[in-house]
């Protein structure tokens, strides 16, 4: 996942937070959170069964 050690304020190990899923051993990167949110919102059905959030909102508005 790209984490070798903790990402402390003076650390040189984590200069590219966007290039990895985790920016240290336990904390997901911002990019990881963006990908997760995008998948829940408008992702494919094999990730968001029975429907994604966008489909839920659309269905709720038309009912």
From TrEMBL:
Gene3D superfamilies xrefs: SGNH hydrolase
Annotated InterPro entries: GDSL_Est/Lipase, SGNH_hydro_sf
Coiled-coil region: none
Keywords attached to this entry: Hydrolase
Statement: the UniProt record of this protein carries the keyword Hydrolase: yes
Superkingdom per UniProt: Eukaryota
Transmembrane segments: none
Protein name: GDSL esterase/lipase
Organism: Oryza barthii
Lineage: Eukaryota, Viridiplantae, Streptophyta, Embryophyta, Tracheophyta
